[in-house]
From TrEMBL:
<dbReference type="GO" id="GO:0016787">
    <property type="term" value="F:hydrolase activity"/>
</dbReference>
<dbReference type="InterPro" id="IPR024197">
    <property type="entry name" value="TPP-like"/>
</dbReference>
<dbReference type="InterPro" id="IPR023214">
    <property type="entry name" value="HAD_sf"/>
</dbReference>
<protein>
    <submittedName>
        <fullName>Hydrolase</fullName>
    </submittedName>
</protein>
<dbReference type="InterPro" id="IPR036412">
    <property type="entry name" value="HAD-like_sf"/>
</dbReference>
<keyword id="KW-0378">Hydrolase</keyword>
Length: 271
């Protein structure tokens, strides 16, 4: 069994996103320039350590490799053989880039999506530079743009989505970060590839954003926390195959891990 899980605001949380929680309940899992940036609850961390020994836990993130490597908590007593970074653009096996996937995904982007410069030029034409704060081209595959969210007009994302579709690209807004992504680059496609690599027959997936939806839709069972883009879109219901946690914030990770453990027990019983 594979447990493919988004990281930020699904499994790990910054102080700004975690919600009310006692300091004594927190375990730091990411450090940058001497500062603890991300946390899990002690209960969630303990459950993940146990669970990682029973199945293939696959961290699945939009972070690029260098940002993923900062999460030291995923190397301390937690077994990770496979990981997915760059929103599905790179698959790691035992910490190294899988060359087979790398070649396939870059060829797919070349054949089916417009060059990155075209997508970015379209964005620049539609965006107001007054609310664009920072931008980065990630892994030569997609763009991450930091924006002043209050400045983004209502309906603007819908306009951008429609324009990008003609180029074979899509977009997502998560907090202050806007992502422009070519269609072949998705977490769902990468999870399907890892499933084949691992020889797994069952996938449980969890995530909070529209960039996670592709992997939640191809999973055998899936859960989203009671916050984030997916919760806002579906209102905690009518998500089809996606179940929703009762809790929001950092507490939702405990529910997600409990659901993954339940799937593992049921798979073991039926197997």
């Amino acid at each position: 069994m594979i447990f493919a899980c988004d990281l930020d605001q699904t499994l790990i949380y910054s102080r700004r996103s975690m919600g009310p929680v006692g300091e004594s309940e927190l375990v730091p899992v990411e450090k940058y320039e001497g500062e603890d940036l991300s946390f899990m609850t002690r209960a969630a961390y303990s459950r993940l350590r146990e669970l990682s020994l029973e199945l293939d836990f696959v961290p699945t993130t939009t972070r690029i490799y260098e940002q993923y490597e900062r999460i030291h908590g995923l190397t301390d007593g937690i077994r990770v053989r496979y990981a997915i970074v760059s929103n599905g653009g790179r698959v790691l096996v035992d910490g190294r880039t899988d060359a087979g996937w790398d070649g396939m995904i870059r060829e797919a982007v070349r054949l089916t999506a417009a060059p990155g410069e075209e997508a970015k030029a379209l964005f620049d034409r539609l965006a107001d530079p007054r609310w664009v704060l920072k931008e980065r081209y990630c892994d030569g595959l997609f763009y991450a743009v930091v924006v002043d969210r209050d400045g983004v007009p209502d309906g603007w994302m819908e306009e951008l989505t429609g324009e990008l579709a003609g180029l074979g690209w899509n977009c997502s807004l998560q907090g202050r970060k806007m992502y422009l992504v070519p269609d072949p680059v998705s977490k769902g496609a990468a999870v399907r590839y890892v499933k084949e690599l691992a020889g797994a027959s069952f996938v449980f997936a969890a995530g909070d954003s529209l960039l996670d939806e592709s992997m939640l839709r191809i999973a055998d069972a899936a859960m989203a926390p009671a916050h984030g883009e997916l919760f806002r879109m579906y209102g905690g219901e009518n998500g089809g195959s996606i179940g929703f946690a009762r809790r929001s914030g950092i507490g939702a990770s405990e529910e997600i891990l409990d659901a993954a453990a339940k799937c593992r027990r049921e798979a073991r019983h039926t197997g």
